[in-house]
Design brief:
Length: about 375
């Protein structure tokens, strides 16, 4: 396995996700209400930055809503689909990416977007639908039915339908919007993007020194390298979303998007875990939610698909993703591989230790 850091595509990634900054402040407030650890992870400087960006992007909120969903855990967001359909790995700058989108004909764009949507939907991939040629009118109607059958928010569903039924127009209008905010992004990134190159190169060197163990060490046992199933890994560093991490695979290539403050974030979480009493309380708090408890129960039964869990509990996939993120933060689960299947693993040793510690705490002191 080899990690390759790409500096210029890292900037393109942040550009494509730049409009989402309008939602970050509210999302952070929601997370704070549920998880007080986030307050210690995120810096005051970044919180002020997101407040400023919300104000700057406010005049564009209606346009942004056409392409970006306001839930960070939502599946099928346009930018998620676009990133799979047209990966940014080999682009030199933002304009080259936008120009390439404009140069594609309607048929090529539609096919790429459809395959990306199916790639996100696990059932479609399992059924082999992604290998079909979806270019005639009958199959287009079938695909509309496929979208209508997805268990996602109606707003997301509408955006997907617009994307597929009016592909060239939809993408052209998106490009025009992104070109209009490119000067704003360039000004912001000039300051926020400092240090990305050094962080990316240092991280890639560290991961390549010991590919089998470094990822688990850096993430303090939150992520196992086994979850990466490709030999080549593209590493992007995000300056605008420094406390986030994404991992996705397509066409035999895995992309890891690493927020530039993620190593510090994992370190802060690990320090909290060293205090067993504090960690014990946080774990009990995470289990205090009925839906979250049911999520853990289903994971224990081997149901690891976000979509399947959502269907079982009759909630959105975004809600399940939020609860899984809470378990990852407390260490109750980690990302890894069991046999041939990658997904979430419950740390039964940790739960046993928590329960034993709890029972010991309740024992009366011996005189």
């Amino acid at each position: 396995m080899e990690y390759e850091f790409k500096e210029k595509p890292s900037r393109v990634y942040d550009f494509l996700h730049f409009p989402k900054l309008i939602y970050v402040r509210q999302q952070n407030e929601n997370i704070n209400r549920q998880n007080d650890l986030f307050k210690e992870v995120a810096s005051e400087e970044y919180i002020r930055f997101t407040e400023q960006m919300q104000t700057k992007l406010e005049p564009h909120k209606n346009k942004i809503a056409n392409y970006y969903y306001d839930d960070i855990f939502a599946d099928f967001d346009f930018i998620q689909v676009l990133s799979l359909a047209v990966p940014m790995h080999d682009y030199e700058n933002e304009r080259s990416y936008l120009n390439d989108l404009l140069s594609m004909d309607d048929r090529t764009l539609r096919k790429r977007l459809k395959n990306a949507i199916k790639e996100i939907d696990e059932d479609a991939m399992k059924s082999g639908e992604s290998d079909r040629e979806d270019e005639d009118e009958t199959e287009d109607r079938d695909f509309v039915s496929f979208i209508n059958g997805l268990s996602i928010d109606p707003g997301l569903k509408w955006n997907l339908l617009m994307m597929i039924q009016n592909t060239k127009t939809y993408v052209s209008e998106y490009v025009a919007f992104m070109e209009s905010i490119l000067p704003m992004f360039s000004s912001v990134y000039e300051e926020q993007g400092k240090g990305v190159a050094l962080i990316g190169k240092a991280l890639a060197d560290r991961l390549n020194e010991d590919p089998e163990n470094s990822l688990r060490e850096i993430t303090y046992d939150s992520i196992d390298v086994d979850i990466i199933e490709t030999k080549r890994v593209i590493l992007l560093v995000s300056a605008l979303f420094p406390y986030s991490m994404r991992l996705f695979s397509s066409d035999g290539l895995t992309t890891v998007v690493w927020g530039k403050e993620m190593e510090k974030s994992f370190e802060t979480i690990a320090k909290h875990h060293e205090d067993k009493l504090v960690r014990r309380v946080k774990i009990f708090k995470s289990l205090g939610d009925k839906t979250r408890y049911e999520v853990l129960r289903l994971l224990a039964q081997g149901v690891t698909s976000t979509k399947e869990i959502a269907a079982e509990l009759d909630v959105s996939s975004a809600t399940i993703s939020y609860h899984l993120n809470e378990f990852l933060t407390t260490g109750v689960i980690s990302l890894g591989k069991q046999g041939r299947k990658s997904g979430y693993q419950i740390d039964y040793d940790l739960l046993t230790d928590v329960m034993e510690g709890f029972m010991n705490d309740l024992k009366p002191d011996e005189e």
